[in-house]
Amino acid sequence: MENTDQIKEMVRQKYSEIALQSTAENAASCCGSGGCSTEVYNIMTDSYEGLEGYNPEADLSLGCGLPTQFAKIKKGDTVIDLGSGAGNDCFIARAETGETGKVVGIDFTPAMIEKARENAEKLGFNNVEFRQGDIEKMPVGGGVADVVVSNCVLNLVPDKKSAFAEMYRVLKSDGHFSISDIVLVGELPERIRNAAEMYAGCVSGAIQKDEYLDLLRQAGFKNIAIQKEKPIIVPDDILKNYLSDEEITRFKSGSASISSITVYGEKGCCGTGCC
């Protein structure tokens, strides 16, 4: 099993490749990770088309939900997007927060930061910025954000406990988050969990749904609620890359499943030294 640094480097390399691909190449792949399936266009992504602020050049088809749609962003808010990629969710958030607000995208892949900055410059946005950094140790001060959003990124973070603690730290005392992510119920076959392609682009970095929600509670978040949940159905022609026909049959008839969830939570902190 890879250690934390190896996992991060693998993800960084994969997403550097994705940043250099065309939008069409990403859209035709499984979570942007490479040639995927003849059965589906994309097994996870929800369509952003129709949302105010949507910019096709910034949409790399890497998400698994629409967290910004559920994030209750108000005019003038400061929003942080974790794993901002080419800037898609940042630009949606900017449409919500307006010119009086601020949006900060954080990504640890230099090629993604460059791509996002180019997109922001084309759009003429002076209140959207992108910072290179690790979600487990964000390049942001404490208590600065009204809202944190993230789309299908935290499942790739090895130390989710630290990432959730950082989310808590950067939020204002009355701040909240809305994040879309991949979670599991039951045990996936080992070869799916350990496949590098699935880890860097799809599901194998995901943890159990109950554990995910519990880690958010442990970080101190209150009023946690699932805003949306949908099953992720992996087509047979993907599964055949990892499993035998017999294993596929057992997997489909078993209780293990993969889901995309959009989760909401509030800092709700009024303890000593917090508010």
Task: Describe the protein's topology.
Elements: H1 4-20, H2 23-27, H3 67-70, E1 78-82, H4 88-97, E2 102-107, H5 110-123, E3 128-132, E4 145-151, H6 160-170, E5 171-185, H7 190-194, H8 196-201, H9 209-218, E6 222-231, H10 236-239, H11 245-253, E7 257-266
Describe it.
Helix content is 35%, strand content 21%. The protein has eleven helices and seven strands. The protein has helices spanning 4-20, 23-27, 67-70, 88-97, 110-123, 160-170, 190-194, 196-201, 209-218, 236-239, 245-253, and strands spanning 78-82, 102-107, 128-132, 145-151, 171-185, 222-231, 257-266. A seven-stranded mixed β-sheet has the order 3-2-1-4-5-7-6. α6 crosses α9 (209-218). The longest helix is centred in the N-terminal third of the chain and has 17 residues, at 4-20. The chain is globular and about 55 Å long. The protein starts with a helix and ends in a 9-residue tail after the last strand. Mean pLDDT is 82; it is low at 32-41.
